[in-house]
TrEMBL record:
Belongs to the nucleobase:cation symporter-2 (NCS2) (TC 2.A.40) family. GO terms for molecular function: transmembrane transporter activity. It comes from Rhipicephalus pulchellus (Yellow backed tick). The chain crosses the membrane at residues 42-63, 69-90, 97-115, 135-155. It is found in: Membrane. Its main location: membrane. This is Xanthine/uracil transporter. Pfam families: Xan_ur_permease.
Length: 222
């Protein structure tokens, strides 16, 4: 949500650089095991300074393409593996989970290919609406993700079967618990990912606890 809001503001202000998060960063974190915000901030500052030196840019441009190809192979391999690792707490012996996973992958691959082959099949009477549907239905990530989210939240299944309890215990180290006894978010995680000073500001705004991107958000049911 915050990423989308930032993109809207950047477009309104005429920013000429991309603001979306890149999957390559996930691969870099998986390889280096470094996810500290301070490292990223210092690295960004160093790159900004070095970007003003032409010789440094020429050095990066001189890196052979085979080396860059090898880097990308390793990086995107880790990205793919990270996506598959999301299933580590899911019960893959459950026919319910196998159906959700299989339908998401199958439709995510088939529907975009069919839409690209038959673009005229989408005809709502409005060229703008047709274009929106074509873009969405030709995007594999959207189709697969939408189908997966829809089926996972509509097909009956226990939290243990869906892997929700396993993920909560994994994220909190099996120690922190919420107000209702369920695993909650640890203080260390909150302090690591909250922007500096955001908690103080959010605590002064009562309704901020209902905003999912707010530091003091604890769920809609609390």
């Amino acid at each position: 949500m915050v990423e989308g809001l930032g993109s809207v503001l950047a477009a309104a202000w005429g920013a000429g650089c991309g603001l979306t998060s890149y999957s390559e960063n996930i691969g870099a974190i998986g390889i280096t095991k470094v996810a500290s915000r301070r490292v990223i901030q210092y690295g960004a500052a160093i790159m900004l300074v070095l970007g003003m030196v032409g010789k440094v840019g020429a050095l990066f441009a001189a890196i052979p393409e085979p080396i860059m190809g090898g880097i990308f192979i390793v990086m995107f391999s880790v990205v793919s593996a990270v996506g598959l690792s999301s299933l580590q707490f899911v019960d893959l012996n459950s026919s319910r989970n196998l159906f959700v996973l299989g339908a998401s992958l199958f439709l995510g691959l088939c529907v975009p290919d069919w839409v690209r082959r038959h673009p005229a099949a989408i005809a709502t009477g409005s060229a703008e609406v047709d274009q929106v549907f074509r873009v969405l239905l030709s995007t594999s990530m959207f189709v697969g993700g939408f189908v997966g989210i829809f089926l996972d939240n509509t097909v009956p299944g226990t939290p243990e079967e869906r892997g929700l309890h396993g993920w909560r215990e994994h994220e909190c180290g099996g120690e922190a618990t919420g107000d209702d006894g369920s695993p909650g978010e640890s203080v260390t995680v909150k302090e690591c990912y909250d922007p500096p000073g955001s908690s103080c500001i959010a605590n002064r705004i009562p309704f901020s606890r209902f905003l999912p991107f707010s530091p003091n958000f604890r769920g809609f049911g609390r």
